[in-house]
Give the backbone structure.
Amino acid sequence: MDPAIFLIQCLNAVQYGLLLFLVASGLTLIFGIMGIINLAHGAFYMVGAYMAFALQPLVAQYLGGGFVVTVLVCVLLATLLGYFLEWAFYSYLYHREHLQQVLMTYGLILVFEELRSIIVGNDVHGVPVPGWLASSIKLGDVMTYPVYRLFISAMCIVVGLLMFWVLTRTRLGMMIRAGASNREMINSLGIDINRLFRIVFAIGVALAALAGAIAAPVSSVYPGMGNAVIIICFVVVVIGGIGSIKGAFLAAMLVGFVDTFGQVFFPAAAGVMVYLLMAAILLFKPEGLFKH
Amino acid sequence: MKFIQSISAAVLLSTVSLASANPIKIGFMLPYSGTFGQNGQTVENGFMLYVKEQGGKLAGQELQFFKVDDESNPSKGPDNANRLIKRDQVDILIGTVHSGVAMALAKAANDTDTTLIIPTAGADALTGPLCSKNVFRTSFSNWQPGYAMGVVAAEEGYKNVVTITWNYAAGKESVNGFKESFEKAGGKIIKDLTLPFPTVEFQPLLTEIASIKPDAVYTFFAGGGAVKFTQDYAATGLKDSIPLLGAGFLTEGTLEAQGESAQGLLNTLHYADGLNTPRDNAFRASYKENFPDWSLDVYAVQGYDAAQMLDAGLKAVNGDVSKKDAMREAMRNAKIDSPRGEFTLSKAGNPVQDMYLRKVEGDENKVVKVAVEKLADPARGCKL
């Protein structure tokens, strides 16, 4: 493999890894801090992507905004959705067994898929790349790299850093971390833990929807798109250590590289490479790379 | 008293058997929900359109319809098939879109000697190793569009081609068809790229294609994967330097989503826009009038032809479905006057049909020419 192609493949791996990180970070927050196995996380990714598709004309008409405004509206609506879902459903799950959590969140997947089918239909739809990002950079002699993909990566890095800063440097982050380690104690200190968890959950949903919305122009929107994402995200969360943002980042990068180079060098086994990686890591670090 | 009871029972029985002998029971096992939900409904639309054009009857017989949503779920296939065969006791089965479900359906039909018309699923095996005297198909085998495109690729003068598809049956069958005709004409497949179904992260393999620099790329993708693949292919700049060739499902029913990225793509299928034959124009006008809100696509044609095929069989036996052998004989020998052009059936029950070369223009797959005339699937493994 010549060095230029190798570097492009590395870029592919990083770019895929960063997008995985953005989806998985919301999942690991909800899983690690609230202790809920949220299978519906992929559905939130889908909701984000479909909102980016369906709201674009409305936003252009009523708010006069383009892609960025649409994404902001998506994130805002997703946050409200998360807030509502936590209040209506998830808040009853904290003291339940994992089986019940899995059943309810799986049920939500079916509900969201059906709603999607009723509201938008079963067709595949493309989402246009915003004009100011539609160009490409020339790489090598036949290949070009779309600027939009670099934009996705940049967005993922910004969001990741923001999240890291909130969790480690702010009062809200401190409360979230304290709540995760000892629910009763933080409650007795006079902090409304229920409200806190509601916020965390809403952030998690918003992150998934944001990932869906900014990925929509390159992935297009199609039925079942969330299900493809949820499995690989659980792999990322488990490898990284449940609840660890740092771990999720590292794991997403690992998965990105293994998947990309697995496809290139071992095409016959490409489907299992990532799971072999997971098995190998769990063998030596049963709780993932970073224990929460 | 006992005497009267038995008489009334006998009368009752005879009326029941008269009533049940009367309408012909047709069972639709199609996806009405899920990814292929739209396709299932379009197949049914096509079927119903032909029945309506015949005045609501086939061969003078009343029809009674039963429907099961197969959800494109292979694990529920046998149960769903038996619901129609055992519970509703249908005479004729129509189904389905998903190849895995179609396999289960074909098996159930063979076990109970029920006549089955497959209006979409393309798995080679259905008219290959699994072929049976009671199974017919009005669509295509995956091998057919691939084979036709191999001929076109060789004509275009391409020598070294890379293939890329999902690592699953339909993709492999399509690529095998392409390989067969392309290598026969002196071409060479320099690399077979595959990725696990239904992964849509194509970037690594596209980079691989850029490093190999073949004369052309042959691909089989469908649905959401097809949309993303053509978009990524265009976005990485490969579309301008390495021609992309595909089985027709790459651009079937997805053009609105693909937009600019699909313009000009060459692909092969057994139906096309712009055929402009009296038969096709009449069909299109009639379909648009009866189903104004539905897209007119190859699935509607396949459903329409399923009804035509059944009609041919029923006419031969004057609507008496109990004469199974004579009816099937007539179906197998029928000339179907399809909107796609006239076709006959091979011994194995697969259409022997013209394969069109099509080029994407706007939101249409415009016909360029007939790529291969009267192409018959080799039906490998069929013992009929």
